[in-house]
Amino acid sequence: MAEPILQVRGLVKHYPLTTGILFKKQVGAVKAVDGVDFDLARGETLGIVGESGCGKSTVARLLVNLEKPTAGEIRYKGEDITRLSGRALKAVRRNIQMVFQDPYTSLNPRMTVGDIIGEAYDIHPEVAPRGDRRRRVQELLDVVGLNPEYVNRYPHQFSGGQRQRIGIARGLALRPEIIVADEPVSALDVSVQAQVINLMGRLQDEFGLSYVFIAHDLSIVRHISDRVGVMYLGRIVETGSHTEIYDHPTHPYTQALLSAVPVPDPEAREHRERIILAGDVPSPADIPSGCRFRTRCWKARERCALEVPPLAVPAGFRDATGPVAHDSACHFAETKQVVPPEEDGAEPGREESGRGV
Ligand SMILES: Nc1ncnc2c1ncn2[C@@H]1O[C@H](COP(=O)(O)OP(=O)(O)OP(=O)(O)O)[C@@H](O)[C@H]1O
Ligand code: SF4
Ligand SMILES: [Mg+2]
């Protein structure tokens, strides 16, 4: 296998909890990201999925260097970018861009669309188009399916879906290799979500992009992900290919998340088992011992409180071949089909329609 474009190893971000006003004393830490490992291959989409507060946005901010990790490495083409600074860091940052969740707050309301997209060239003049910058911005608007004539309009003159297209155009302006999209469609209507996801699929093919695509629910990334990592309380608890995760999940948490995925076929829906998780997600400042999922796991036993299950192929599947043999951090991993397999022909990430939606 070719070297991954991004390799994340032991990534940790702890926020200190302090008391006292004049003399601050650390009394604990919010373990937002607590040991995350994954690879991103060139041209692939890795979906990262988990409930609110599990650390997804923190991972995103670390990847694009908006924050420094407490520990761990982020290797871009083999080089640990967490140690870079100055010009070297700036060059890498250009290649890893972010698309934000909320298209309503992430675009400056006082700037025209042309200035919002073109602003990136002020920060990185080395990739600014020679000559007519406005024309380049108009080309980008066209690429994301917006009318190039809208270049002088303001964000409030666009719908949510159109605004997210502007956010994507801004992300593309510097011709990055990797886009980290933090819940890019969560704030949009369901009807618009598919169009934005399809647009991202088309742009990926056109520009050879690699995506880290973050979502809080497995149904959103189903059509765009080549691989998926399921996050719980700051760690990835199961990771595998699209087929491994959707058709052969072995971690109870993934199975519970999948049981909430909408199933269009009424008959399949009727026979599907819903797994309702008991209790709330524990605080990331007080993570349970052993398996961090044990306080909500219906299969938890004594061993689960004593031993941390590693993210690896579980012992019971080590001799197996095929899609059950993938990384799952559970001592008692079992395969279970929760959602019916996809029908043939449901090709992911292709744009159907929708200029300007
Ligand atoms: N700057 C910070 N200081 C202290 N705690 C923080 C900070 N940023 C995030 N956290 C905490 O870290 C945890 C993970 O937050 P994060 O925003 O990464 O989660 P998320 O998975 O993106 O959630 P959501 O789905 O709601 O966007 C949360 O408990 C959050 O309160
Ligand atoms: S290790 Fe135990 S508590 Fe954790 S997911 Fe597996 S069975 Fe549940
Ligand atoms: Mg978030």
Give a structural overview:
Belongs to the ABC transporter superfamily. Residues 6-258 form the ABC transporter domain. It comes from Streptomyces cyaneogriseus subsp. noncyanogenus. Residues 347-357 have a biased composition (Basic and acidic residues). This is Peptide ABC transporter ATP-binding protein. The chain has two domains: 6-225, P-loop containing nucleotide triphosphate hydrolases (Rossmann fold, 3-Layer(aba) Sandwich); 252-328, no CATH class. It has eleven helices and eleven strands. Helices cover 28% and strands 20% of the residues. With 357 residues, it is α/β, with parallel strands linked by helices. Bound molecules: adenosine-5'-triphosphate (ATP), iron/sulfur cluster and magnesium ion (MG). Adenosine-5'-triphosphate is lined by residues 15, 30, 32, 50, 52-58, 216, 284.
Secondary-structure topology with pairs:
Layout: E1 6-19, E2 25-40, E3 45-49, H1 56-63, E4 71-76, E5 79-80, H2 86-95, E6 96-99, H3 113-123, H4 133-143, H5 160-172, E7 178-182, H6 190-207, E8 210-215, H7 218-221, E9 227-232, E10 235-241, H8 242-247, H9 252-258, H10 266-271, H11 302-306, E11 327-328
Parallel strand pairs: 3-8, 3-9, 6-7, 7-8
Antiparallel strand pairs: 1-2, 1-4, 4-5, 9-10, 10-11
